[in-house]
Structure prediction request, 296 residues.
Amino acid sequence: MQSAAQRVEHQLTDKGYVPVYTTRVIEQPWETYTAEDHRTWATLFQRQRELLVGRAAKEFVENQERFGMSAEAIPKFSDLNRVLEATTGWTLIAVEGLLPELTFFEHLANRRFPVTWWIRKPEQLDYLSEPDLFHDLFGHVPLLLNPVFADYMQAYGCGGVKAAAIGPEALVNLTRLYWYTVEFGLINTPDGLRIYGAGIVSSKGESIYCLDSAAPNRIGFDLERVMRTRYRIDTYQKTYFVIDSYEQLMDATRPDFTPIYARLAAEPSIAAGNVLAGDHVFQRGSGEGWLADGDV
Ligand code: PHE
Ligand code: CO
Prediction:
């Protein structure tokens, strides 16, 4: 018999919230969503969709529509999977919370995307410190229909398995790449800069801030530069990196990273807000409102 799906969340300790990891793959317990859960989805869906007009990359909303995602109800993974499997061969799997790194990489390497089954509570509409169903489904899943991005995600998973065997420093470099692309990436389009990062599109405040604010840097994507740059987990980013296309991302990450990790081990990391001489600067941030400490 299958035990009930759990909602595994960060635990509050005397050192603040600490992440809790779980490895179980479950069936999405769709029947257990309450009316309040569906309302939370509807509120967030409508709010973000309005905000993302002219802000998100166009394939983002297009693909949500191809999936048939709507405000009406929390989507069923089985419905999304029919579209996804027929298009790029990815499969969504339901999980209870954060996965250990290697488990996460192995799923991606096999074109399985883990989605947290539970949705945030109404008092967490604007922020929660860990991924939930809204972040994962609304934020990450749409671009899995894009063939190039879908391949990038798989290559990232393979790269993660490899980096885990090389060591913790390699993993730090690789994690920064994920952070500044998959989670907080911007893309340059003929209409201007647009959002493609899941961490941004699932956040009301950051969807506005990343494009409209004079405070953050916006800098052209450069693989090794990104892999050296520390980041923020509890505030908006100080720097966003801009790709020209998903092909650029794929091409830049195709080479074997093993010699790159070795080279970067000898170089200092870069603070989240720094601008370097060689950077292609779209905008040099004013730095207004930045906290001095807390780069990871
Ligand atoms: N080419 C990388 C490696 O050799 C793998 C990778 C691809 C990593 C895409 C991230 C993104 O490790
Ligand atoms: Co995410």
